[in-house]
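[Automated response] Your request has been received and processed.

Submitted sequence:
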Amino acid sequence: MRKGSVHVCLAILLMLAAFGCGRKASPPPARPAVQKPTIPLPAWAPKNPSPEFLRAAKVLKPVPPEILGRFGEQAGPAVQAILARYPGTYTPAWEFFGTLSDDEVTHLKSLGTVRVPVRKMTKTQRRMLDSYFEGWRKAMAGQQQLPTDWLVELYKEGAKEDLSNVDAGFRRDSDRGVNIQFWITRSDGSVRTPSNTVAFM
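Generated structure:
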């Protein structure tokens, strides 16, 4: 090959290299990681919170420990021991709250209540409600002062076995306490409303 031809070939190879021919394109520069906004979580929050729990944590605040402490001091050691079990019931209650739509949360804030007929709940809502019942059973097992099984108590108040005459939801008190609440329409038309405080707002 003549010297001139060698120079031409080298020039072509350099041009091909400049346009990336014969090799993979270099990866684009890495974008800086976008940090997700952090939500302050209660000390009793699960290590790997569910999406429903995180949605609830944007709206709810934990029940202040001093409130339970004051109540326990007035009620005595037996009730204090029961109150120590309460944090075991909060996570499933918050997860159930996290299944509410944005409109339902707005309704709760403005009008003080939101209720969903159990028979019309989504699969996720019913699963989270059942999880609350189970969480309460586990937390309250063995004590005698409070109901140990929400379902049994609902049945005593007139709920049908399939809960078809029960609405479940939340009620906000004047002091900003948030209660998980049940509305049981009995056969005589009266309505029973057992509830339990699970958060503040």
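Summary generated for your ticket: The chain is about 45% helix and 15% strand. Residues 51-200 form one domain.
If you did not submit this request, please reply to this message.
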